[in-house]
Amino acid sequence: MQTPAQIEFEGVQSTPQLQAAIDQHIAELESRFGRVTAGRVVVKGPGDRHQSGGQYQVSIRLALPDGREVNIGRTPKQDERYGDLTFAVDNAFKRARRQLQDRARLMRGQTKQHENQPIGTVLRIDPSGEFGFLQAVDGREIYFNSNSVLGGASKIAVGMRVSYAEEMGEKGPQASTVKMLGKHGLRA
To answer: Same domain for 102 and 128?
Structure first.
């Protein structure tokens, strides 16, 4: 970091072990994502307020180049695991690491582009109900397994319009993540 991280404790006593754990988390973030320019960590004790419910709260604010930030704040309500200070600190830094990974991918232009999923029509379903075939817009038949049908294969029927993700299986193209379109599948 260009400036040392600020670490504050409110309603909780700082111990050498707690300080070392926070310093270790910060060092790990810096080694993975060296572009963090400044940081602030606030550790709040449970306090006597009803809203906090005996939970520790850890807020992390990391400044990145070009005015970008990563902010980790709110503690989930009614999660008793946040009554453990070690868990609260570890979880907050885990969430910060995830956000930094996402930001780093964006900055490098490595975000996955989601294309519109193809749409097909259920052509036939095996009598066992364990698999079937879709007809793609281009007329190809694409295999699907009942486990790939979102919302349960028992609701799918011949003639329904579906969206799907196509991938290459052992025996040719197959559909995964088959999703019925419309409220009840909108038959063609």
So the answer is: no
Residues 8-47: pLDDT tens digits?
999 999 999 999 999 999 888 888 777 778 889 999 988 6
Q: Cα–Cα distance between 182 and 81 in angstroms, integer?
A: 40
- 15 and 99, same structural domain? yes
Range of the domain at 136: 119-180
CA distance 92 to 69: 15
Q: Is residue 170 part of a domain?
A: yes
Cα torsion 64, 69, 74, 79 to 10°: value is: -50
Amino acid at the residue 48: D
Whether 103 and 65 share a structural domain = yes
Domain contains 37: yes
Give the pTM.
0.54
pLDDT digits (tens, 9 = 90+) for 80-97: 888 889 999 999 999 888
